[in-house]
Specification:
The structure holds 2 protein chains of 2 kinds. Chain A folds into 2 domains: 17-256, Type I PLP-dependent aspartate aminotransferase-like (Major domain) (Aspartate Aminotransferase, domain 2, 3-Layer(aba) Sandwich), CATH 3.40.640; 261-394, Aspartate Aminotransferase, domain 1 (Alpha-Beta Complex), CATH 3.90.1150.10. Chain A has 13 helices and 13 strands. Chain A has helices at 17-23, 39-59, 72-86, 101-112, 130-135, 159-168, 240-278, 305-313, 324-327, 334-338, 343-346, 360-380, 384-394, and strands spanning 5-6, 66-69, 92-96, 116-120, 141-145, 172-176, 195-199, 210-214, 282-285, 295-300, 317-318, 320-321, 349-353. In chain A, α2 (39-59) packs parallel to α7 (240-278). The model of chain B is unreliable at 189-197 and 244-248 (pLDDT under 50). Chain B has helices at 6-13, 62-75, 80-84, 88-94, 103-121, 141-151, 156-163, 173-186, 194-220, 242-245, 249-264; strands at residues 26-32, 37-45, 51-59, 132-134, 139-140, 223-231, 234-241, 270-273. In chain B, a hairpin with a 2-residue loop joins β6 (223-231) and β7. Classes of the chains: A alpha/beta, B alpha+beta. The complex binds pyridoxal-5'-phosphate (PLP). Residues 71-73, 100, 102, 147, 151, 176, 178-179, 199, 201, 210 of chain A line the site of pyridoxal-5'-phosphate.
């Protein structure tokens, strides 16, 4: 395989080598069931306990407040459905227009099942209309679910303030922190967060393992019923190797948090500035003031995202697009649409998301390869000449 | 990741005939920035009214660019009549197939070609035909009906894949379903009979083409041809006169009769001589 330049870390991350190493013994030699009475299984149980502690350290929770799940999506579903089950007389849900489908599609479905739903809009920079959110809090509201950071733009929401305001009204607050955990410091006990979702594969652990944090004292209704695992909050024999890996990954990201917010941030800024500088008619989607350190979403006007991705792929560069064509839907991403990004730009939006594994040389490589790709596609585009004509008239 | 054929990838990476033909005889523009893809096709004819040059400018995904590139290759050297017969299915076939969700790229190619030809012939670009059904993508009932008929579409999802209608807010889904139901209802209600009907149509078409095109051509060389049987895709013919004894008759058959029939009726046909 040719060299891969991986800048698609909001889609999934490389499993860190030490994380791979940590899980292998539990796929092979130590295959015991952590619930067994014998030491062969019991030792595995001890190892799970260690992983639970490592994760709780990462987000400032107590180990007993964590429920291991199969993915971020399961954590989101469990949280929202549990909040509704626990308060059967409350029929109202508040969420935002830019949630991941894991929350968005679930809430839409609940709307069809008869719940009243309120979707908080964002402005052109992807910032939430907080006044609207607070106005809609009512006695009937069962749960407010707001993502911590957006996966497409990296925009970070003021979770501390929102959680506080929601708590004042005695309403349950859930946050999908899948993109935030591991990238920015999080301390759940300092905030009024009742439930928080995270996903292993976004923080250098394998796919197929997640966590739901449930604050002590929160009424909880399990999603999967069965055995007594996870204290009855999530039945099913644990995904042992992956949970152990997630524990290791929690330590890995904690150790690299500083680097993520310095070196990685600088690389992201360098990439962004260089591309904006070299490519006319390009702009950043989102709020540069409040953004994950690793993410930039850049719109290249008059070209289409899938074509850009496929030409980048020729050079081994892996990124994502908010364009319609890549997703199989016909409209550009709901996040960009919610932000009212003009169609000229939305279809040609590319998300670059970095990690601590990226190097400066890789960023330089992208900066060298991408401008000619955009130019090539623009020359093919029927809208490019007009755009240039207009430019000339203005200058 | 889409499963694109090598041919799609090849046309995307090395698109042919990009640009605008100088002094074009006809230009066809379809799509828009809002819709996510757009194609501007320009053509020029030579003194014999064959398409001499065809160029495209496309904004869109890999399959939109590949479909446009393929289209230009397909039309160059053709008469307008021949070009007019190119269907969206032909474009997709030329590329070795397109993912179902991307069929609208081939429809866009066909539409641009039609517009370019109309433009050349000076035919009034038919004012927006029919009634807009899908507001999001500006698709009319006539366009949907045509796509449903030509491609035997059976569901709303199919319609969205081919002409985008219904791919936005979804408010028009009921109307699209009504159109599909109308067409499915009117087309030989017992659908098991449909195959026989197509066969009949196929035989009639073959007969017609033999009579009107192939026979006159063979007669020039003192030959003749007679249709013996059509079984599935196997067309059996009998050669008469000069052709029957001519050692080149096999070649004549393969090169000429089969090419014409394949081109005009179905790519699957094979011609055999008794
Ligand atoms: C914000 C957000 N929430 C939820 C998920 C879903 O996580 P998982 O893939 O583990 O189900 C993702 C990942 O794509 C995400 O980015």
């Amino acid at each position: 395989m040719a060299k891969i330049i991986y800048v698609d870390n909001n889609a999934t991350t490389q499993v860190a080598p030490e994380v791979v190493e940590s899980m292998i013994p539990y796929l092979g030699e130590y295959y015991g069931n952590p619930s067994s009475i014998h030491a062969f299984g019991g030792d595995v149980g001890l190892k799970l306990k260690e992983a639970r502690r490592e994760l709780s350290d990462l987000i400032g929770a107590d180990p007993e407040e964590l429920v291991f799940t199969s993915c971020g999506t399961e954590s989101d579903s469990t949280a929202i459905r549990s909040a509704l089950k626990a308060q059967p007389d409350k029929r109202h849900i508040i969420t935002t227009s830019v949630e991941h489908p894991a929350v968005k599609n679930l809430v839409e479905q609940l709307g069809k099942e008869g719940y009243r739903t309120t979707t908080v809009p964002v402005d052109s920079k992807g910032r939430l209309d907080l006044v609207y959110l607070y106005q809609n809090l009512s006695d009937d509201t069962a749960v407010v679910s707001v993502m911590w950071a957006n996966n497409e733009t990296g925009v970070i929401f003021p979770i501390e303030e929102i959680a506080g305001k929601v708590k004042e009204k005695g309403i349950l607050f859930h946050t999908d922190a899948v993109q935030a955990v591991g990238k920015i410091p999080i301390d759940v006990h300092k905030l009024d967060i009742d439930m928080l979702s995270l996903s292993g594969h976004k923080l250098h652990a394998p796919k197929g393992v997640g966590v739901l944090y449930v604050k002590k004292g929160t009424t909880f209704s399990p999603f999967l019923m069965g055995g007594h695992q996870e204290h009855g909050r999530r039945a099913g024999t644990e995904n042992v190797a992956s949970i152990i890996a997630l524990g290791k990954a929690a330590r890995f990201t904690a150790a690299h948090m500083e680097e993520e917010n310095t070196r990685v941030r600088q690389l992201r800024d360098k990439l962004e500035n260089a591309l904006l500088d070299k490519i006319p008619h390009s702009m950043v989607n989102g709020d540069p003031e409040n953004r994950l350190p690793n993410t930039t979403s850049i719109a290249f006007e008059f070209v289409e995202g899938e074509s850009i991705l496929m030409l980048m792929d020729q050079h081994g560069i892996c990124a994502s697009s908010g364009s319609a064509c890549t997703s199989g839907s016909l409209e550009p991403s709901h996040v960009l649409r919610a932000m009212n990004v003009p169609f000229t730009a939305a279809h040609g939006s590319i998300r670059f998301s970095l990690s601590v594994f990226n190097t400066e040389a890789e960023i330089d490589f992208i900066v060298e390869k991408l401008p000619p790709i955009i130019e090539r596609l623009r020359k093919m585009s029927p809208f490019w000449e007009d755009a240039q004509l207009k430019d000339r008239m203005i200058t | 990741m889409w499963e694109y054929t090598d041919k799609v990838k090849e046309h995307f990476l090395n698109p042919r005939n990009v640009g605008i033909v100088d002094d074009a005889d006809g230009v066809g523009e379809v799509g828009s920035l809002a819709c996510g893809d757009a194609l501007k096709l320009s053509i020029k004819l030579d003194e014999n009214k064959l398409i001499k040059e065809a160029k495209f400018q496309t904004f869109g995904c890999a399959s939109a660019i590949a479909s446009s590139s393929a289209l230009t290759e397909m039309v160059i050297g053709k008469t307008l009549e021949e070009a007019r017969r190119i269907t969206n299915e032909n474009i997709a076939e030329y590329l070795g197939g397109l993912p179902k969700e991307k069929m609208h790229c081939s429809v866009m190619g066909r539409d641009a070609l039609e517009k370019a030809i109309e433009c050349y012939l000076g035919e009034e670009a038919k004012a927006v035909e029919g009634e807009i059904v899908c507001e999001c993508f500006g698709v009319t009932d006539i366009q949907i009906e045509r796509a449903v008929r030509e491609n035997s579409l059976k569901s709303i999802e199919d319609v969205t894949d081919y002409v985008k209608a219904g791919g936005g807010c979804g408010n028009c889904h009921d109307k699209i379903q009504d159109i599909i139901d109308d067409i499915m209802g009117s087309e030989a209600a017992p659908r098991t009979k449909k195959k026989a009907l197509t066969n009949l149509q196929k035989i009639r078409m073959i007969e017609e083409i033999l009579e009107s095109e192939i026979k006159p051509a063979l007669e020039k060389d003192g030959g003749n041809i007679e249709l013996v049987d059509v079984a599935g895709n196997k067309v059996t013919v009998r050669m008469r006169g000069a052709c029957a004894t001519c050692s080149r008759s096999q070649m004549t058959l393969n090169n000429y009769v089969e090419t014409v029939l394949k081109d005009r009726v179905s790519h699957e046909l094979v011609v055999e001589e008794v």
